[in-house]
Amino acid sequence: MKRRFFRKILPLTLINLNNMITITALIRAKNNSADLEKLNGLFVQLIQETRKEPGCLKYELHQVTQQPGFFIMMEEWASEAAMEEHNTSPHFKNFLISAEPYFTVPIEEFESTLLT
């Protein structure tokens, strides 16, 4: 299966796994085709720009099967600083402003730690 969005991951020798940050975001959007089409375009722009960031290790968007408008964003960052740089980047701020009208509830974010 060919991946549509593929980016080269930084060599593990450059990443301190103790500093790596994993974020899972739950995004609930209006469930109509016109709004989802517009939101999808915004997601594509955000993902393309974010994957260019040097501290971005993974930035994947999933849509929950059988639940249109329910998305899960899975992120991995090389460090807290890399994540903060992303959160203050113009493309991320612009996404939040542009996409907000399509959300039905605020985005839920969870930071997690790899156990095994």
UniProtKB/TrEMBL annotation:
Pfam families: ABM. One of its GO terms (molecular function) is oxidoreductase activity. InterPro entries: ABM_dom (IPR007138), AI-2_Isomerase_LsrG (IPR050744), Dimeric_a/b-barrel (IPR011008). It comes from the Bacteria. GO terms for cellular component: cytosol. Residues 21-114 form the ABM domain. This is ABM domain-containing protein. It comes from Pedobacter petrophilus.
